[in-house]
Design a protein that fits this description.
This protein is an alpha/beta fold and 560 residues long. It is built from 20 helices and 14 strands. The strands form four sheets. It has a five-stranded parallel sheet with strand order 7-6-5-11-12, with helices on both faces. The chain has a four-stranded antiparallel sheet with strand order 1-2-4-3. The longest helix is centred in the C-terminal third of the chain and has 23 residues, at 477-499. The radius of gyration is 28 Å and the shape is flat.
Length: 560
């Protein structure tokens, strides 16, 4: 609907320029004025053609205003200095918008492009920790947004089963005479993490363990001990998947890097890179990237001839290039050099260079939370703490059965984590502050509460969706703001998808919740002269808040 409004304004400008026989720029730019008193859209066309015409923008605007016709969806077109401002007819827009509103509102037609989006991909040597969570939330939310925008998206988790950390765990199983089930912990990934720490301690005591681990890696690449490596990785992934399910993070496919070695793909990549004439050998085989402006060479094999993560990563990206039209990787900012190197290597072999979303790291304020092991904060611990704090807040506000309070607390706690991380651009460092994340006034809980408030109002009115929109309904200011925001939702989805960013959706849904809370306080609904129209408006807000939160992987409770 918002695009229809924009297109109507552009068409009227183009028609006016044609009447005046003035040149039209390649793009008629429109912007939203800083306040509604200046209209809903402002056009800067006079500035854009003033240089070519060698005339003042004010004169050009005056000429355009003398011939412009007001499109149907607008009630007025006015000049504000050299700007041409369009004022929406909310009586017409509101009715049109409410009539087209459905449960799938915000979705775009299929684009015919397939995206392979890789995210999380944490090493399976212990539980997911706070250092991984931003990757998972950005990746999962972006996949949801891209699908809503019409893309065919497959999310992938690249399983590093050939890394040194996994070989260390296998060494522990073979030499410490314990099973993974012997280690303490409620979840499998935590048990693997404890074994990994124990092997690290052994490595510190006996440097000879390193040689044993290296030998295990060589044997695994040659096809030995596959069952043991597979068992370790599967065991850890079981626990990690449980964490991701609780956080509402989903992967369509898990790709094991070891398979790229065993099927010969990595060997083919090495030989193909040799043929480029850019490889050099000095104990190790490496790719000289100096002519691409990258001073640091990309090492392809160890001195013993075994492959490295980077080599296997190139093979993986070539596989993704065959499967998708667009590749997107979510990586920490410390991977910038490696991503640039791999991108060049993939391009040399005819693959698609991935788009990379780099993010800064997330920390907790010192003293805000303890950890049992004193090493890192696991995502499980973070979610447990969020649940505990949310449950305390829920019990302060309402008396509810324990199971209901627990369910609401889980939705609020998980929503707090996902929203707090999603709301900022990935380039910004995050300090996770509990009071802000769990705030019922400005955090995700305030958005969930607005949704629950809308549900409660509709239930009280016995709303069934067939209510008529009364003739003569002219939206008041708070209603206009809701209509303006609701009309923008499909555009927000599209623009977030194009920018590969999640935070615009988070900001949008906060703005919508704030506008609804203002409307709720100021505008009578049940029993009012325009009860039908306003109930339809409330239901539209409910749908869009639910859909927007869904794009962020957050549950929208019907009661709080």
């Amino acid at each position: 609907m918002f695009r229809y409004i924009e297109n109507s304004a552009r068409d009227s400008i183009i028609e006016a320029l044609e009447k005046l026989q003035l040149p039209a720029p390649s793009e008629i730019k429109l912007e939203e004025p800083p306040n509604p008193q200046l209209g809903d859209l402002a056009c800067t066309v006079a500035f854009e053609i003033a240089g070519e015409l060698k005339r003042p923008p004010m004169e050009i605007t005056s000429d355009i205003m003398s011939v412009i016709e007001t499109p149907e969806i607008f009630e007025a077109v006015e000049s504000k200095g050299p700007y041409i401002n369009f004022f929406v007819d909310y009586g017409k827009l509101s009715g049109k918008l409410l009539e087209i509103m459905d449960d799938d509102y915000g979705s775009h037609p299929e684009r015919g492009e397939r995206i392979i989006l890789e995210h999380t991909s944490a090493n399976p040597n212990g539980p997911l920790h706070i250092g991984h969570i931003r990757n998972a939330i950005i990746g999962d939310s972006l996949a949801r947004i891209l699908r809503k925008a019409g893309y065919d998206v497959e999310t992938q988790y690249y399983v590093n089963d050939m890394g040194r950390q996994i070989a260390m765990i296998v060494w522990g199983l073979l030499n410490l005479h314990k099973n993974l089930d012997d280690y303490p912990g409620d979840k499998r990934d935590h048990r693997v993490g404890r074994l990994y720490l124990e092997v690290n301690q052994k490595l510190g005591e006996d440097p000879g363990v390193k040689d044993d681990v290296d030998e295990l890696l060589r044997k695994y690449e040659a096809g030995e001990n596959e069952e043991t490596f597979r068992e370790v990785v599967d065991y850890c992934l079981d626990g990690m998947k449980e964490t991701m399910r609780r956080l509402h993070v989903h992967h369509d496919r898990f790709v094991w890097e070891g398979e790229l070695v065993r099927d010969g793909t990595v060997g083919e990549v090495i030989e193909s890179l040799r043929k480029t004439g850019l490889t050099r050998e000095n104990e190790v085989l490496y790719l000289d990237l100096e002519e691409f402006g990258i001073e640091k060479e990309l090492v392809l094999t160890r001195s013993d001839g075994t492959s490295l993560y980077s080599t296997r990563d190139i093979a993986y990206h070539l596989q993704k290039s065959r499967e998708g039209d667009i590749l997107i990787d979510v990586l920490g900012s410390d991977h910038k050099l490696a991503a640039e190197q791999v991108g060049v290597a993939v391009g040399l072999l005819g693959g698609k260079k991935p788009e990379v979303i780099f993010y800064e790291f997330i920390t907790l304020p010192e003293g805000s939370m303890s950890t049992r092991r004193g090493v890192f904060i696991s995502v499980d611990e973070l979610m447990d703490e969020a649940h505990r704090r949310a449950l305390e807040e829920v019990k302060k506000r309402r008396e509810l059965p324990d199971d209901v309070a627990d369910e609401i607390a889980e939705a609020i706690g998980n929503g707090a984590i996902r929203y707090y991380i999603a709301r900022l651009s990935p380039e910004k460092h995050i300090v996770f502050r509990w009071d802000d994340a769990l705030s019922f006034e400005r955090g995700c809980a305030s958005i969930q509460y607005a949704h629950a408030r809308a549900c409660k109002l509709l239930k009280k009115a016995s709303f069934n969706g067939d209510e008529d929109i009364e003739d003569g309904w002219e939206p008041e200011d708070d209603e206009k703001e809701l209509v303006r925001l609701l009309a923008r939702f499909p555009v927000v989805v599209e623009e977030a998808a194009m920018a590969r960013r999640v935070h615009p959706v988070a900001q949008y849904v906060q703005d919508l919740a704030n506008a609804f809370n203002s409307f709720y306080r100021s505008t009578p609904v049940i029993g009012s002269e325009f009860e039908g129209a306003r109930l339809r408006l409330v239901d539209s807000v409910r749908i869009v808040i639910r859909n927007a939160l869904g794009l962020l992987g957050i549950h929208a409770p019907e009661t709080m």
